[in-house]
Structures are given as structure tokens and as C-alpha cells.
Amino acid sequence: MAKGWYERSELPQSLNSALANVQRTVAAAANAYGSAKVENANLVQGVSKTTTANKAIGSALTACIEVLEQSWLDRSRISGKQSQEDLDQSDLNTLMSFTALKHIRDVLEGTATEFDPATLPAPIVKPTAPSSEVAKVEQVPQQSSIQQPPSYKPDAIRDVPPKNGPSLPMSLPEYARYGRQMILPDFGLPGQLRLRASKVLVVGAGGLGCPAIQYLAAAGVGQISILDHDVVEPSNLARQILHSDATVGQPKANSAADAARRINPYITAIPLVEAISAHNARQHMRGQDLVLDCTDNPLTRYLISDAAVLEGVQVVSGAAQGYDGQLVVLHKRIKAEFAAPKARGDGEARGPCYRCLFPQAPRPDEVTNCEDGGVLGGVTGLVGTMQALEAVKILARIGEDTPPMLTLLSPLTGMPFRCVKIRPRRVASCRACGDPAQVAEPMIRDLESEDYVSFCGLTPTPAEKEGPRTQAAAMQPALIVDVRPEIEFGIAKLDGSINVPIQTLLRNPAQAWKRIHEAQPAAGVKEVLVVCKKGNDSRVAVRELLRVKAEGEAAPVDPLQEAKGARGEVRPVKISDLVGGLRAYSRERDPGFPVY
Ligand SMILES: [Zn+2]
């Protein structure tokens, strides 16, 4: 903090010329103000002259601030203060008063859009002994990790007025805690107070949610609600950095909320242990200033976007898959000039929602999530952190106004970061955020009557189409066909199993069956057991193999009913898949089999 201020003392302008500047600008302000009063009878001229007068007063204020700053810095130097550690509470109050004065100046000069009473100078208070501040932090009551109802009370510390001065907008330790970001240009005390008053909903406390929550909490976002129904598993720990071995088995929402409070006891973290659904999405978003979508499947992305549009909330949406990531702000408040021509003049200008960007859901076979497709911790870390940064920009109102952009992260390429402008809102066709007068289809008004499952092509297969299934506990000797990707087969496999990756199998099921059929005699067993990681892909595989049978594509001799045994005789074949996959196998048959 001190460095920037001491550098100001290197300005060539002497105190004398600063004082002369005060004399000149105050005189000009007095003239302009007098002139504005005389002309007030004419409204247009009066407004114009008042603006001129305000700017003149602003200039006078600038001149006064410079004198005060220089005097203060001179005194600090004389008393030997060279680093931040040398500053006492009185110095800190002086710095904050300068910030407030500059904000008043900006309002007068028209460069700040609003006046925030919280920027009024704080009274000078006596320095507080550091030990008492530490003690105060330690007295913060620990929140229990149970799920909190919506009427959750904020941390006690935020209700207690600071002891040293009733008009201080924050407690003294908070001034010290947030000092580095508060002295940034355009951030200041107003930016910090906006963050402190903000309420944010983070959906998903996984790879993206953890880094996002971490930086939101540290920056002092006042209330962070964390919605997640999952529990912490060992396979989360390589990237979901708020969880630990000690919280394996606990709800992720609780684990993340506890971690957020450890990072910053001056914020409120609310764990919500439930899955987001059409039933609860709007309720959880109501009253929030911002939503962070940290989930990893298309269905929840559409649901979160639709609910946010209905509640008028912006969504900072992150995605990470494999080595790649992306970031976009949905339903973003934008300047009218960035809006689609057709959208101008129909109320507040907004960027596109998720449906505007993706009117059709991807087919399920085009989608993989982190669990099935893999993901690198650094990638989720970067995207989650970028989400937090974007959230802080929006909440503290810093940074440039830009048209809606998509940020793409591809760390393995020569251009790891790219930013592309995205299409404007589909005013004439989007069922969520379009103009009801122009959209032909019925608008989305009630989430519970929307069929998200069918829209995303996730309709469950009717039971009668399923192939036979085998429980891990009832496994018999069989030829084991492992349909996981080759790279996973290389991590751990069952003895004697063969690898036919699901993608290969789906591309040419008949060819896949031929390979299985040829391996059968060598295995010398009657049954074929298809396995995968969790028991989903293996069901699809068995279904496809049965379809091959029905179409008679596999071989002249029906391979699913008959196969040649090791001695050449024809034997019946049973084909089934392992319920729960290799995870169930590890749990129920062989705890020594690695789970990843
Ligand atoms: Zn839309």
C-alpha cells in the first residue's frame, strides 16, 4: 500500500505550486458557481453552467487533495515511515479519506456515475493494537457444517458495528485485509463495499466451483451460496482444491463452505446440499446479484440459463473438458450499442443466453463430462479463477464495458488464450430471452413444465430394450470385454480381459462382435461379460451387440446363441454387462482393484 503513495512524493510539482493551484482553481470554482446561480432561470443554460461549476469545484478539490497528500507524505517521511508495516490506523484512515475525497471529486467532474455515501471520510480514530485485532478475528464463531435454511443469519461479526467509530462502513481488520485491492485505480472503498454487499450463487462445488469460491471468498464477496448435492470422493482431490482427505464422504457444499470461511471469516458461506432442478432453480437465484455456473453437463446449463433469464440475473458460465476450457457471461447487462439492432429499445440491453448460443442441445453421444472424458486440474483452476475474476469485475463495477465475448483456453496449442465476439441475443427466436411479440414458439415461463431430459436427448431407454445384467457379487467365469477407452484400460484392467473401446464398438458393432467371437474359444468360457468404469457404456455396448444379433449382421452362425468352445463343440453364449462397472467390482469383489 505504502509504495504507491511514496512514489507520489517523487512528483516534481512542489508544494508551493500546488498551493497556488488551489488558489486559482477555488477562485474559478467560485466564479462558475456564482454564474450558474444567476442563470438558473433558464433551465438548459442553468444545467450547463451547473455542470461547469461542478467541474470547477472538482478541480479545486483535486488541488486541495494534492496539497494534503504531499503534506501527509512529507510528515510520514520525517517520522521515518518507509514501508506498509510502519503505517498505523491513523495513516490508514487518512488514505481512506483521500479515497473518499477523490470519489466526491469524480462525481463532481462527472467521471463517476453515482455518489456512494459510504465513501464519506471516516473519522480519525486512535490506532488499535494489532493484538486486539487478531483476537477479534479469532472470536468469529465457527459455522456448523449442516445445511442452512434460506433464512440463514449472516455471520455475527458483520452485524456488530466497529468499536472504534460507528460511521466506519467496515470493521478495521477488513480495511487491512482488503487494502491491496482497495487501492487499485477505480476499485477503492466503493468497490469493496459493493463486493461486501453482494450475494452470489455458485452452482457446483467441483473443479470449477472450488477455485471460483476460493477467490470470491478471499476478495470479500459478502454472501456465497454453494449449491451441490454430491459428496467428496478421492478422485476429486487432484483438482477440487477446497476439499481434502479429511472431507471425503462429506457433502461438497459443506466442505467448500467450511473452506471458504477458513479463507475469510468476514464473509457468509451458505451450503445448500441439493441438486439444482426445475423445481428449485428460480428459488435459489432469487435475490442473488450473480450466478456462477460451475456444472459440467448440458441439461443444467440450459436450466441455469433459463432460470437466470426469468430472474433477471447474469450468469458467469465456465466449462472445462480434457485440456480445454471456456468462459462466457450469459444474459449479460450490456451497453445499448452492443445489443442486436432488433433488441434496442425493448428495455434493458442484454447479451445472449445459453439457448441463444446453442438453440439445439448437443446429442448425448457428443457430450462427455469430466468423469468420463478426463480433465486436468490446472485447466479447471484457470477457468474457475477467471469466473471469479469476471464476477468481481461485475460486482465491484470495474473494467471496461465490452460486447459479450467467449474466452477460449487451449493450453496445449500455440495460442493458449483466445477471445472471440459472440453472436447477439436471438431476439426473434429465443424461447428464453427473446421478444415474446416476435418469437413464434411459446416462451419459457414455467421451468417445471419444460422437458429438459428430452430436449437434451437423455430419455431413458425403456427397460425391455435392456440386455441381461450381472451383479458383481454374482459374477461367473466369463470372457471379459472392457469397453473403456484404451488409456483407461492401461491404468487398470481385470486379468484376461480384452479391450474393445465403446467408440470403436459403436462405429462398427459387427466388427467388434467378430473380434469378441474370435477371442471366445481361447477364453474357454461360455459367457461374455461387458464391463466399463461405472456400468453405463457397458449397457450401451450390450444393447448394440444384441441389435447386431437381431439384424443377423454378426455371422452366419448366430454368435449370441452359439459359439465354438475350446474343443470345437458348439456351446450356448450368454452376454451381459456388469452392473455398476469396475467401481462395483472393486467395492464388492476385490478392494485391491484400483478405483480412479
Ligand atoms: Zn436467449
UniProtKB/TrEMBL annotation:
Name listed for the protein in its UniProt record: Rhodanese domain-containing protein
CC annotations in GO: cytosol
Region listing for Disordered, in residue ranges: 118-167
Main localization of the protein described in the UniProt heading: cytoplasm
Organism per entry: Kalmanozyma brasiliensis (strain GHG001)
Domain Rhodanese: 474-594
A Gene Ontology BP annotation from the UniProt entry: tRNA wobble position uridine thiolation
The organism's taxonomic lineage, starting at the top: Eukaryota, Fungi, Dikarya, Basidiomycota, Ustilaginomycotina
Ranges annotated as biased composition (Low complexity): 139-150
Molecular function via GO: ATP binding; nucleotidyltransferase activity; thiosulfate-cyanide sulfurtransferase activity; URM1 activating enzyme activity
InterPro entries for the chain: Rhodanese-like_dom, Rhodanese-like_dom_sf, ThiF/MoeB/HesA, ThiF_NAD_FAD-bd, Ubiquitin-activating_enz
Keyword vocabulary terms for this entry: ATP-binding, Nucleotide-binding, Nucleotidyltransferase, Transferase, tRNA processing, Ubl conjugation pathway
Keyword Kinase included in the entry's annotation: no
Keyword Zinc: no
SUPFAM superfamilies attached to this UniProt entry: Activating enzymes of the ubiquitin-like proteins
Cell location: Cytoplasm, Cytosol
